[in-house]
Design goal:
The protein is mainly alpha-helical. It has helices at residues 11-31, 36-95, 100-158. Helix 2 (36-95) runs antiparallel to helix 3. Keywords: Membrane, Transmembrane, Transmembrane helix.
């Protein structure tokens, strides 16, 4: 029942592990006067909390991956946009020597291409942001749900 042993240790993970350890200590004191079904139930609850913590750690790792991928994709898109802008500048300089109608046609095509590429880039960034927001909501829901469940159980059992 060691919590999140495969995940990198950070401040949130340390706090979670500390709280689970404190709960285990309290449970051990209470279990020192065991009533068999209560003892098993309390151990199962602690195991469930650790499992939920592992799921939360997994969700956080997925968020980190999504953020890293978002940064990578954005960097690539910026690089590509700069390249396209550079091509556009070169094209404009070359087209200055051609008649005005040809310049207008090439410039319009280039602007359409740049517009599409920027639009695609923005859409990718929005999609990655939406995925991250959905993962954050899922993480919070799982965490708060497990806390409420455990508190409700403990208070319901104590009262």
């Amino acid at each position: 029942m060691d919590s999140a042993s495969s995940f990198p240790e950070d401040e949130i993970s340390r706090q979670f592990s500390k709280r689970v350890s404190e709960l285990r200590e309290s449970a051990e004191e209470w279990i020192g006067r065991p009533v068999e079904p209560e003892q098993k139930l309390l151990r199962d609850m602690i195991f469930l909390m650790v499992a939920l913590g592992d799921q939360c750690h997994g969700a956080r790792a997925a968020l980190r991956e999504t953020a890293a991928q978002c940064r990578k994709d954005t960097t690539e898109e910026i690089r590509e946009s700069r390249k396209l802008i550079g091509e556009g500048v070169k094209a404009v300089e070359t087209l200055k020597q051609v008649n005005e109608k040809t310049v207008d046609a090439h410039l319009a095509k280039l602007l359409i291409r740049i517009g599409r590429d920027i639009s695609d880039s923005v859409q990718k960034s929005v999609d990655l942001g939406n995925k991250r927001a959905a993962l954050e909501i899922h993480f919070r829901t799982v965490l708060y749900g497990s806390i409420i469940f455990c508190l409700g159980f403990v208070f319901g059992h104590v009262m």
